[in-house]
Amino acid sequence: MDEETFLSACFDACEERLRAVAREALGPHGDVDGALAEARGRIGEAGAGVEAWLSTLVAHTCARRLAPESAGPRRAGDGDPVRERTLVEVFLTALRARDPRALSAVLDPAVVARSPQDTVRGAPAVAEAAAAAFARPAGRHVRPALVGGALGAVALTEGRPVSAVAFTLRAGRIAALDITLGEERVRRLGLVFPDW
Fold this sequence. Notes:
Elements: H1 3-13, H2 15-26, H3 32-41, H4 50-66, H5 81-96, H6 100-105, E1 107-114, E2 119-121, H7 123-133, E3 140-147, E4 150-157, E5 160-170, E6 173-181, H8 183-187
Parallel strand pairs: 1-6
Antiparallel strand pairs: 1-2, 3-4, 4-5, 5-6
Helix pairs in contact: 2-3, 4-5
C-alpha cells in the first residue's frame, strides 16, 4: 500500500474525530464538510505525508514542553543553553513542515519580526510570514547557527547563505526575530554553525 492510500484509509477511520476537530476550529456555522474535503484533497501534496505530520506532532509536543512552567526556575531564554537550542530546533522543525500553527506555539504572543522590508507583530502573523519567507525552494535548506552571536538560523542555497534570522528568547518563547536578507549582508553577520 502506498503512502497516499494508507493516509486516505487513516482519514476514513478517523473521520468522526476529524469532523469534531473541524467543527471546533470553524465554529457552528463553519463549512465542516468543505474543510474535510479540502484536507482529504491535500493528502497527496508534497509535504503532507506521514513524515511531515510526525514532524509537526513532535514540534507541538516540544513546544508544550518548552512553554513556561508555572513554578519552574529555568526557562529557554533565561540562560539554559540546552533548552534554548531545543527551542530553535523546534522552530526549525515547524518551519520545515511549513506549519504556522506549530511555529506560533514557540512564539511569544507579542513577538516582533523585523526585516529590511517590514515589521510584523503578533504570533499568528509572524508564524505565517516565517513560513512564507523560509519556504524551501529547490536546493535551499535552513540550519541552526549563531548569527552575530545570537541563536538563530541561516537559509542556504547551494551552500551560500541567502538569509538569516537572529532570535531573542524570553520566558521559554521566541520574543523577536531579526531577519537579514541578501548573501553579502548575511556573510557580514559573523555566522557560526555549531555542532549541536
